[in-house]
Amino acid sequence: MLALDNPGNGESEGHSNGLGDNAQPAVDAAVGWLARRPDVDPQRIAGFGSSLGAEVLLEAAAREPRLRAVVADGPARPRDVRGVSDPAPPERAFGALSLLAVRGISGMNEAPPLLGLMPRIAPRPVLLIAGGRAPDEIPANRSYRDAGGPTTRLWALPDTGHTAGLRTHPDAYERRTTAFLDRALALKDSP
After folding, report:
1. What is the sign, positive or negative, of the torsion defined by CA atoms of 35, 40, 46, 49?
2. Fold of the domain built from segment(s) 41-184
3. Bridge-partner residues for 157, per DSSP?
4. Under a CB-based contact definition with an 8 Å cutoff, are residues 8 and 16 in contact?
């Protein structure tokens, strides 16, 4: 197992713009490192990400075939949820200007929408987890599931906040994610 902080977060060096736009080189390095380890089966590398980490992993899986499965808890890129519950025009304008300022200062381009990337992950399995107390999360993840095809599953938790499934449903969370990874990586026969 390898725990990875996005650049500039946690114990990771580098700079963060808080949007994950600069995380792909770190994910590439992590997957490469795991694939070269003698104690790791390179056919059984999976990713488990939460919130921004979920978005980063889905983006990585779209171009990195060594990621054989992904559990993504709480992904919902702003570009993918437009029109689901658009904010009022002043809020939308302020949000757009804020993003432009962050990108202008950091020099980073906007990460691509996940909707267009989901079909590129298939047929590898993806488990999406979405909380209903975050207004756009379940609708966005339904769109991701539909774009990902039959190997993409969605576990919607209407009574749960953003990435709070482990806290609100600990036994079910552990059971579902473990069973999903066991099946996806052919670790054991799971129902």
Report:
1. negative
2. Rossmann fold (3.40.50)
3. 131
4. yes
Distance in angstroms (rounded) separating the CA atoms of residues 129 and 175: 13
For residue 129, list its beta bridge partners. 73, 155
In the chain, domain spans = 41-184
Q: State which amino acid sits at residue 7.
A: P
Q: CA 181, CA 187: separation in Å to the nearest integer?
A: 8
Query: Phi and psi dihedrals of 152, rounded to 5?
Result: -105, 125
- 10-64 pLDDT, tens digit per residue, is 566 555 545 555 667 788 888 999 999 999 999 999 999 999 889 999 999 999 9
Instruction: Give the C-alpha separation, 48 to 71, whole Å.
Output: 5
- pTM for the model stands at 0.81
Q: Are 147 and 115 in contact (CB under 8 A)?
A: yes
Cβ partners under 8 Å of residue 1, min gap 6: none
